[in-house]
Amino acid sequence: MTPAQQRAFDAHWARFGIDYSATTQDFDTRFGRRAPRVLEIGFGNGEALAWASEHDPARDYIGVEVHGPGVGRLMNALAARDARNVRVYRHDAVEVLEHEIAPATLAEARIWFPDPWHKKRHNKRRIVQPAFVALLASRMAPGGLLHLATDWQPYAEHMLEVMEAAPGWRNAVAPGQYAEKPDWRIETHFERRGLKLGHGVWDLLYRRT
């Protein structure tokens, strides 16, 4: 972690951070208003989350990331523009979903470019698994949107297989189909690097039924 990222925790955590406590959060109180809530799991350096929150001020954003430098970088970016609609966890996403987010809370969830765990013996570590998407479904409001994206084709195929079989979700495009890249998902530094290496990118959109 750079000195600037560490200073972000000292200066901005009280404003933007949520300490995991294994108790259901009152996000209306956290944000000081009632608004649709968007959860981004694994936001990396926060580039896409910062952009989304700035360009979508009518909704509140909850970011979850275990990597400290990325959290610090995002908080510095949020502080620089006096953001009011973002709160972040530095914690495991499954535990946050299980214990801190009430049922039917979320209008949207985003999982963009998660670790593909590309070695076959590690595939079971991928976050998009039947049990996880069932948990996520329980936290989504009816009609809520799940947006997945990856630049690893075997993971894209795995995501599609899991989601097509998952109760409580329907493909927002057509059964068995990937989506065109939506306008709200900006091209990040990470994605540009992958494209230069010849990687494809796959988006999947599912609605909570």
Word description of this protein:
With 209 residues, the protein is α/β, with parallel strands linked by helices. The protein is 38% helix and 20% strand. It contains eight helices and seven strands. It has a seven-stranded mixed sheet with strand order 3-2-1-4-5-7-6, with helices on both faces. Helix 3 links the parallel strand 1 (37-41) and strand 2 (60-64). The radius of gyration is 17 Å and the shape is globular. 34% of the residues are buried. The model has no long low-confidence stretch (mean pLDDT 94). Keywords: Methyltransferase, S-adenosyl-L-methionine, Transferase, tRNA processing. Its EC number is 2.1.1.33. GO terms for molecular function: tRNA (guanine(46)-N7)-methyltransferase activity. It catalyses: guanosine(46) in tRNA + S-adenosyl-L-methionine = N(7)-methylguanosine(46) in tRNA + S-adenosyl-L-homocysteine. Pathway: tRNA modification; N(7)-methylguanine-tRNA biosynthesis.
